[in-house]
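Bumping my old thread because nobody answered last time. Still need a sequence for this structure:
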């Protein structure tokens, strides 16, 4: 891994109203201590195309929100395209593998079982219901689907076993890019109504509510992949008005502001919600900057161009030939590319990222890495032990 990170671009700092953090003491202290040291045996996934395993194959949407045709999925991981926005596996596939859990199935597939978790991710989805409305399964709807899964698990396992499964499970929420790219930057009305900081505050406010709701339903262990420098996506590099081949920094700054605001929320949740444990990839943004600018350090040849697409940097989103622009080419060696299509990484990128998330150092993923989150559930942090021994109530705002 790169040891030095380049200075991040100028950021905008959202001012957040933290009053949505209020929660009553009785709820906050009702959490149960994990009963054993067993590995988390279930993995629940929420989010967008970064995690969609094929849910959008089942909904009414536009071709750009689906990845169900070749060359998607050509790496040989499955017999053909699965709906994953990649040439093969995505980050959560590798994470499940490291956690020794079967591949987490799409919720929308009626034959999916829930014992080891299920994946609600939907390509193009946002935190806000307005983002790509009507063409995606938004985060709020994904949460409703989770309720159905909980009911079904209670019937299958009994209430007590289901509760244990829910509280030992790991929850990944990977979402936000579409709120900025489609919901904000492609919407003159939204930009008219809200300044960038205000918009980031709204996204983070809604995301915080979702995290709290999951916590109240019994979830304890969370993974939050931070947003990458969005302006370095081939699609955004291609439309940078500077037209000098650089990343579109104004777009990246929204991602950076989002990450900072989310980090602040997570730190406060850590104080407020007893037993709340999380992995946040705080160093991911800078690391990704390094990856696209110095790909050879990481074993890649190309950090700029999409393997599959057309136009400058492969930035015209045409991979597969079923979208507005039909022309596209596919590179011969996707494993040498960071980017698979105009918006999404290759299987090789997913593997590199997931490995680092799995057992990376605290500069990269903190306060827990994924291995600790999945396998060291019995290990309490010092603050938690102090809480237990002194009977001190967790902080309330
Ligand atoms: C959630 O988003 C809506 C817009 O969809 C916004 O009106 C509301 O203020 C947001 N909630 C929070 C807590 O930020």
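Sorry it took so long. Here it is:
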């Amino acid at each position: 891994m790169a040891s030095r990170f380049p200075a991040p671009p100028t950021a905008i700092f959202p001012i957040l109203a933290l009053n949505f953090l209020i929660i009553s003491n009785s709820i906050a202290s009702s959490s149960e201590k994990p009963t054993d040291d067993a590995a988390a045996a279930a993995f629940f996934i929420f989010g967008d195309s970064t995690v969609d395993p094929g849910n959008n194959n089942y909904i009414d949407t536009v071709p750009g929100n689906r990845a169900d045709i070749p060359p998607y999925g050509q790496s040989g991981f499955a017999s053909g395209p699965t709906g994953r926005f990649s040439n093969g596996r995505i980050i959560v596939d590798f994470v499940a593998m490291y956690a020794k859990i079967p591949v987490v199935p799409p919720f929308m597939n009626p034959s999916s079982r829930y014992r080891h978790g299920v994946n609600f991710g939907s390509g193009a989805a946002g935190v806000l219901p307005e983002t790509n409305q009507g063409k995606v399964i938004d985060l709020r709807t994904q949460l409703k689907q989770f309720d159905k899964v909980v009911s079904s698990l209670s019937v299958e396992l009994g209430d007590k076993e289901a509760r244990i499964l829910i509280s030992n499970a790991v929850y990944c929420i990977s979402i936000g890019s579409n709120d900025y790219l489609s919901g904000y930057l492609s919407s003159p009305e939204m930009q008219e109504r809200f300044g960038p900081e205000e918009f980031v505050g709204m996204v983070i406010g809604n995301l915080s509510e979702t995290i709290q709701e999951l916590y109240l339903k019994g979830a304890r262990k969370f993974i939050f992949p931070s947003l990458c420098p969005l302006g370095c996506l081939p699609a955004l590099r291609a439309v940078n008005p500077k037209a000098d081949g650089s990343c579109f920094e104004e777009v990246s700054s929204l991602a950076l502001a989002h990450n900072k605001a989310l980090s602040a929320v997570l730190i406060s949740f850590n104080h407020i919600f007893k037993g709340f444990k999380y992995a946040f990839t705080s160093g991911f943004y800078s690391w990704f900057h390094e990856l696209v600018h110095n790909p050879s350090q990481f074993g890649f040849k190309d950090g700029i161009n999409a393997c599959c697409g057309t136009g400058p940097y492969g930035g015209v989103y045409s991979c597969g030939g079923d979208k507005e622009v039909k022309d596209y080419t596919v590179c011969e060696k996707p494993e040498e590319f960071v980017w698979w299509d105009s918006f999404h990484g290759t299987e090789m990128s997913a593997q590199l990222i997931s490995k680092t998330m799995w057992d990376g150092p605290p500069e990269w993923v903190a306060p827990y890495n994924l291995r600790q989150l999945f396998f060291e559930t019995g290990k309490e942090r010092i603050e938690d032990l102090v809480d237990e021994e002194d009977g001190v109530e967790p902080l309330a705002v």
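The chain has one domain: 18-284+343-390. Let me know if any region looks off to you.
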